[in-house]
Amino acid sequence: MQTWSTVIVILATLMVATVDAKIYERCELARKLAKAGLNGFGGYSIGDWMCVAHYESGFDTSFVDHNPDGSSEYGIFQLNSAWWCNNGVTPTQNLCHLNCNDLLNRHILDDIMCAKRVVTLHKSMKAWDSWSRHCAGHDTSEWFKGCDVHLKTDLSNTEW
User: Is 56 a catalytic residue?
Assistant: First the structure.
């Protein structure tokens, strides 16, 4: 019976989420992330955030990935249901105090606030394997090149 309940919750989530979902264009997302204060947050550039969003979700707000441990990852930054949000199925810490479905729409301010919390609590972007594999130590400026995003030049600031 639990399996059917899980399937029904997932299907309902996908049906609702796709109504208001969005796949962001690169420059549109770069401007939105900069406006929301991610440039320089935790010492990371917009390029780092763009790189993570690309490798995690392809800039798709409705993307959901299911893990072997039973947890799922939601939204543009693929925030895990065991730690960051509540999907009603997975036991969770819900450290961002969010319903996971709220991470699946075009309104990404809640995703951004939760991603900031991830970086604050982990004191790095290493919580995302994609950042460690594809972004760390690389020139991430290509992610916002030509996007008319004004960046901080000193990213050593670690104010949270």
Answer: yes
Q: By the 8 A CB rule, do 46 and 158 touch?
A: no
Structure tokens at 39: 């440039």
DSSP-based three-state secondary structure for 50: helix
On whether the CB atoms of residues 28 and 22 are closer than 8 A, the answer is no
> Measured between alpha carbons, how far is 152 from 156 in angstroms, rounded to an integer?
10
pLDDT digits (tens, 9 = 90+) for 12-51: 555 554 569 999 999 999 999 999 999 999 999 999 999 9
Catalytic residue among 56, 73, 142, 159: 56
Place of tokens 């997975």: 90
The Cα 58–Cα 42 span in angstroms is 23
- How are the residues of the chain apportioned to helix, strand and coil, as percentages rounded to the nearest 5? 45, 10, 50
